[in-house]
Amino acid sequence: MTQFQERRTFAIISHPDAGKTTLTEKLLLFGGAIHLAGQVKARGQARRARSDWMKIEQQRGISVTSSVMTFEREGVTFNLLDTPGHEDFSEDTYRTLTAVDSAVMVIDAARGIEAQTRKLFEVCRLRSVPIITFINKVDREGRQPFELLDEIADVLALDVAPMTWPAGMGGQFEGIYDLRDHRLLQPTGGSREYGGKVAQLSGLDDPKLAELLSADALARLQEETELAEIGYAPFDEEAYRNGDLTPVYFGSALKQFGVDSLIRSLAAFAPPPRPQPAEPEPVEPSRDEVTGFVFKVQANMDPNHRDRIAFMRLCSGTFKRGMKLTPTGHGKPISVHSPILFFAQDRELAEEAYPGDIIGIPNHGTLRVGDTMSEKAQVRFTGLPNFAPEILRRVALKDPTKTKQLRKALDDMAEEGVTQVFYPEIGANLVIGVVGQLQLEVLISRLEAEYKVAAGLEMAPFETARWISGDPARLKEFVEINRSAMAKDRDGNPVFMAKSAWEVGYVAERYPDITFAATRER
Ligand code: G4P
After folding, report:
1. Which of 381, 400, 424 is a domain's end point?
2. Which of 64, 147, 371, 431 is the most exposed place for a label (fewest CB within 10 A)?
3. Best of 12, 13, 17 for a ligand 1 pocket test (most atoms within 8 Å of beta carbon)
């Protein structure tokens, strides 16, 4: 089975407002996955598939449409995974990036590299996820192309290879020149959008260019591209795939410039599903056995339903509807009778899924983030950690009779990866841990809205936590001495809560035979 070779599973990373939503929309539009009003395809089969899918959404009161967006073009299937768009770094985002094979980095031409882009980039680098760069909003006044390219190269320590070049920007914008295909894409009409006006040229010295561009724009384009050729690395596919070089496309998502080049670039260069890190050995996509891992669990938007959708990335094998898969470590096989497959355009295809595809598995809370699913339950995917929380808070109940509901709610949210919950050895108040402030707000509002539990958060005397392991005798001694700072996590693992990062360093030095881990893999 080689269908997986034609899969491109990717995410868009960007700082809020750079244009991720606009670009996503345009990618789907160009990929034919969404249609302009009045153009909705009336093919019987397509309609049936879509209504099935909507029924699942309605029954479960959950919106899954935007988490994974699949579109097909020229025989290639693209799975675009959405990363949450707020400024707080979240574990959810990290885990979504573990499920992709490549990423598109969107940069606002007026702003360059911003804080969130940089953080997300670092996550991609950790896993050597190759990146295509899209410099957006060239229709607006922005920074000069050289300045932007140099910033990417310097700040991210990456080689940059410009693939297209803007003929002017902002008010002077006259089009985008494709440096490899030698095509010039130009705006038309009052809206100055790209409406298909394209000229095939023999190169930058083609005399036809003088008819298409103003003298100023042409002179500038020729001069800049000549300098660019000397100053930047040529595109090298291997360097890109290793995460050492990024091809750069200039464009305007709003005016539809560069979107087509981006899709072609993903099809031509972005890697198909890669082998995934696992124990006892990495899993090749060509393996026969169906394997995958859960990278996200989404709870119900409707408080009357307790269902959840676990998003599983398929890593190997051909998944078929109704198949039995076993979560490693939990034992019991699950029949996946009503998987949500995100390429709902074609019923026949929707019965099967291939490596790189994402499957939504409805369940009642059995499946958790980090779970490995497979036919034989003999592998375990690695690299999906929980992070040591940076903020710890005690949860204080306003109504003491609601203890059970609170526990259930916190357990549920821990499962989804919204927060972590710790059960202190001493005292009755549960402690929750998060990586970013925003997660605290989400927690409190969901407790009230979904679980009808009124609770407040109090400062805890701790700031961070570490999972501890090591020699049993020393561990026992440590736990006894530090009982007031000890807790158990959801799985019963011992956790040391520290007043500061400094304290972690201090105790770690005194107990060299105990490991104080800042991440934990299930
Ligand atoms: P995000 O998801 O990354 O947060 O960004 P989003 O697409 O929502 O875009 C942020 C703003 O930038 C939007 O304007 C959007 O219209 C604009 N934008 C996106 N791409 C381009 C582009 O290529 N050129 C120009 N000129 N603008 C672009 P807004 O005013 O905040 O929202 P709206 O009222 O236009 O929806």
Report:
1. 381
2. 147
3. 17
Tokens of 474: 């020393």
Q: Compute the distance from residue 112 Cα to the ligand 1 centre, in Å.
A: 15
Which tokens go with 82? 């959405």
Mean pLDDT of the chain: 85
Residue 61 predicted with pLDDT over 50? no
Of ligand 1's listed atoms, the one at least distance from the Cα of 23 is: 7
Nearest-5° Cα angle at 76, 265 to 135: 25
Structural domains counted in the chain: 3
Q: Assess if residue 396 is contained within a domain.
A: yes
The CATH code of the domain that includes 40 is: 3.40.50.300
Domain that holds residue 283: 278-381
Residue 417 has pLDDT above 90, yes or no: no
ipTM of the complex: 0.97
Annotated binding-site members = 14-21, 82-86, 136-139
Do 48 and 141 lie in a common domain? yes
Q: Is 286 found in the same domain as 263?
A: no
Residue 58 clears pLDDT 60, i.e. is over it: no
